[in-house]
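Q: Okay, next protein. This is 3-phosphoshikimate 1-carboxyvinyltransferase from Haloplanus litoreus. I've checked the sequence twice, so it should be correct. Can you predict the 3D structure?
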Amino acid sequence: MDVELTRSRVDGRARAPPSKSYTHRAILAAGYSDGAVVGDPLVSADTRATMRAVEAFGGRVDRVTDDRQLDVAGFDGRPTVPDDVIDCANSGTTMRIVTACAALADGLTVLTGDESLRSRPQGPLLDAVEQLDGRAESTRGNGQAPLVVGGDVGGGAVSIPGDVSSQYITALLMAGAVTETGIEIELETELKSAPYVDITLEVLADFGVEAAATEAGYRVPGEQSYGRDDTYAVPGDFSSMSYLLAAGAVAGGEEGVVVEGARPSAQGDSAIVDVLERMGADVSWDREVGEITVRRSDLTGIEVDVGDTPDLLPTVAVLGAVAEGETRIVNCEHVRYKETDRVSAMATELERLGADVTEERDVLTVHGGESRLRGATVAGHDDHRIVMSLAVAGLVAEGTTTVEGADHVDVSFPGFFDVLYHLGAELIEHER
């Protein structure tokens, strides 16, 4: 599907979807338990991949009340060997957290995904599994999927880099809780995207599992049990909110855009509120009610470090293209290893829209004062975050902007374009 947008004003109330990061972790935590209920989940292409994995390991996931609730019958800490290959589709989170889970099984699991996922690095996690005396191989010998994993690991100590993906740490912490001795993680390099590990620790605690940071990294004791008596409620997703907030800041009308479901949590991407404030946006956050209001504002370029918030890079890049002055997005090399190389993708597509952009390995600079956005046909790069950020740019670009491959929003924000339309955006969807 392609989406055609013209310059628009947006106003009104909207609710971002539940958090994808929390939903992934909650589904697998419920899978590790003997049964649990996950309320208000994000049911999307990525999280369905995690549901399939839980079922492949011997659990069951029932979607009830219009997907407002997931009833999970878990495998109680002992995953069985799947009957078939586990297809993680485009979900990097699924592949990584499932890789560590597969290492607990008394047999071998084969994991694969789509072309994009098969190009993403898994080597450090495979090496960590081998340090725990498990078997973990890339079938092509390049540290990328397809993967073969198993070994019935019992715990131990691992040393792993922290600057490639925090999901490696999440995977080991979640699996380590049900091993015999637990897992001690030593970080070889500074941890990037640390707030995502904070989310993991929060979800583990909510399911009765103890884990904590140490001077060298992280530690999770073994022989623990996952479980909870009441329904686990997934919070709203700040990564998805960022596009709605950015839309309000660059194209909001008198009323502005009010985003509901914005209650404080461990999500690092709540930093988008601070970014908008620093750029001069008219934004206010009622934390108790869980609502953020933002109106169109004259923005000024700033420097933003995305070391801990890689998913915000596309949003900030678009804000920078509208702002006066220079916006420097620094500490962003790890953002190149997502569904696509998001640094390069945003540089390429913003330039097609008329932005002046300088791309370096670890820095993306958007020269807002020299940028005048004009409608063009831009590629979504099969990446939900690229698609949604370019759609925001289309709200302010002169003329018509066509975003190709727009259906990829289903990964994290199904109905994104419906929400934009109801806020007043002028858009037309075209089936390919």
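A: Here is a summary of the prediction. The chain has twelve helices and 24 strands. The radius of gyration is 21 Å.
Q: Noted. On to the next one.
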